[in-house]
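Course assignment 3, question 2. Fill in each field.
Student: A.L.
Task: Predict the tertiary structure for the chain below.
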Amino acid sequence: MVFISQQFIEQLIQEDVPYFDLTTQVLGIGDRTGTIRFTTRTKTVLACTEESASILRQVGAEVIAILATGQILDAGVPFLSATGNAAALHLAWKPAQNLLEYACGVATKTYNLVQLAQAANQDVMLYTTRKVIPGTKPIAVKAILAGGAYPHRLGVSETVLIFQQHLNFLGGIDSFIQQLPVIKRQVKEKKVIVEVKDMATAFKLATSGIDGIQFDKVNAEALAEAISQIKSINPTLITLAAGGINDANIANYAATGVDGLVLTAPYYAQPADIQVEMVCRGGFRDLL
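Answer field:
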């Protein structure tokens, strides 16, 4: 379960409804009772259905049917329905649809990437970076979890991941290796991982006592050879590949034998295509 605050839900509504719905107001239909239904148009991994239901409830609608985040649906499957007056349904319509289309798009993209990667290497895991689209982090995290990935880092406070920028201030890789015992003693419950761009540094780190190496923008062929050699030196070393991993090359990177793939691509997925229908009074024959 990912906690998404009510304040976040209210912000989504307010972005679309700063004051009132002028169209519904001028048509004079606000007090008429109806039903709204959300349906997949393509195969979709659901995400943030619960938050979309919260949007509906927040404006005064009653949710009458919902399928949970993480379910994989074929095209043409209803998954969320609510009743209420036309004013409430129209207030919730676009905030809920926008949330669902982004979140389900990310979840579906993540799921497809996981399938591609694990077809090549059943043990590899996908980890998404913290480079989310600004303002979307809570729903992005929930969506990638729904698709079968995990966050690589939720923020800089939780992991020790050393980049070249850090090493520049530390005096280089050799200075870092000298200080590594002290660093590890201070964060005994954490893994210490270093990002590298060349094989010479990777091999130097493999015998240094480091917990893991993250390879940045190393081509898959060279990486496969390096992973084989590094694992023979240090079988317990965690190995990650990052940088430019996408649908076209993820299987090749997975096949290198790395433990995990670090990527940003899911956050920029094509939105899911979610159909929204509203009817007055009688409702739909099939709510789900």
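Instructor remarks: The chain is about 40% helix and 20% strand. The chain has a mean pLDDT of 95.
Grade: pending
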